[in-house]
Amino acid sequence: MDTSMALMADQLTVKFVDTLDRYPCNEDIECKYTFNNYKVQDGDRIAIFKTGWKSLRNYVLFEWAVDSSVAEVNSVIFSRYDLPNSPSETDDLYQFCYISGENVVHGISTPFQIYSSDSKHTVNLTDSLKNENQCTHLKQLLSLKDKEILRLKEENAILKESIKSMVDQRKFQRSKNYDDDIEQLKELTSKLKNVVLGQQKEIDALKNEVRKDKAEQKDLLLEKKLAERRFESVCGKNVKRLNIDFDLGSLQSLPAFPFDDLDKM
Asked: From CA 107, how far away is CA 51, in angstroms rounded?
């Protein structure tokens, strides 16, 4: 893997359990995992990657990690509406990865396949297509916000490294009067702290927007599902009406017209 990939922990501290070899793309995927002397950090997430990935930006989708102090095994759910479902995507192999808020990989699962099954019903509703477009837009928005969060964390790391470098340089200087340098360093440190605090607030705001957008996405997907059910229900009723079988043999013949009576009149 190239230098764009985040550092991987020397010893993986998150283990994925009960990972299947294959998952259907039309069902939710439950990802189970356990911790080994690891405490969940803010920004930890579990992502699905295609095998052979080279950068954390290559993820397919992700969910925020949870830590239950009661259960020994934790789990997150990947919605079936977000899973890869095109023929080209279902031919690939995928794997779960646990990534900390500091972009360090702490766990990798065994590869698995996400396969598609033939669908017997095709739904073609204007509302459904509209919801799908909205869901696609939300996915793109979530992806952009996730990239922005990573960028802010990288800038934060650079600022911390700059402060550390300046402190180290000051230690090796032999000037007799350090008062001015100390004051400048304090002033710079104060400014950097303000920048870091501002960036942290931006990160928190972005996370809140991500959670809100994910909730809106799930509501849209629920509306789509209800529309599909209504469509299938209406189609079923129409088919039943067309299948009514009239038994013509049970109808009685009309009596013959009394022409003889007319002749007598």
From this structure: 14
- In tens, the pLDDT along 32-61 reads 999 888 888 888 999 999 998 988 898 999
Q: 26-50: buried (b, 16+ CB within 10 Å) or exposed (e) per residue?
A: eeebebbbebeebebeebbbbbbbe
Nearest residue to 19 (alpha-carbon basis) of 31, 10, 9, 7 = 31
pTM above 0.70, yes or no: no
The single-letter DSSP state of residue 7 is: P
State pLDDT tens for residues 70-98: 678 889 999 999 998 887 777 789 999 99
Distance (Å, whole) CA 51 – CA 1: 12
- Cβ-based neighbour number of residue 85 at 10 Å: 15
In contact, 95 and 16? CB cutoff 8 Å: no
Q: Are 59 and 50 in contact (CB under 8 A)?
A: no
